[in-house]
Amino acid sequence: MQMTVWVRVPGAMTTRSIAGAVLLMVLCGCATFAPAIPEGYSGPVAIIKDSVKPLSQSKADFFYISEIDGRRIEDSRLKTLRVNQGRGFNMTPSVIERNVPAQRATFTLVGRTEYAAPILALTNTVYQITGKVTFSPETYRSYVVRGELGENYSAVWLEDEVTGKTVGEKIEVTGPSKLGVFEK
Questions:
Q1: How many independent structural domains does the chain possess?
Q2: What is the pLDDT of residues 170-184, one digit of tens each?
């Protein structure tokens, strides 16, 4: 007669705990974004638009807001990656414009090179610059995130769409703003 004995080793992972860990990683991998207008806000608004400079069918420089007062919001780079998934080496940028409260806030501005396929990002140069600008958007005024990315100079700023004047401080880097392989 053959007898099977199961021994539980303290600290060892069971199939159930492994499945739970995998499920947790999958669920946490889904990005959730806060609305640009906080819940319950009913005051005046302004408009802030992201921008993009297409460089080819598979490469573009994106300039966008990633956070408002520390709350992560949807941006044009991530939306573009999502809507272009499965298109291979072709990418059509999807630019976001959003209403924001017309009150003093801190905006995280980002300029970043993006490619249609992850393998292109790994094998090519990706520039990135990020910084915070605090200002009070004027009621019903439109603003655009603008920027420039390059080998020796990168910048990202917010400007009034009508006048073209810079609002707040310009975030600049003189020298390389190239990301390393593990930062992409």
A1: 1
A2: 999 998 898 888 887
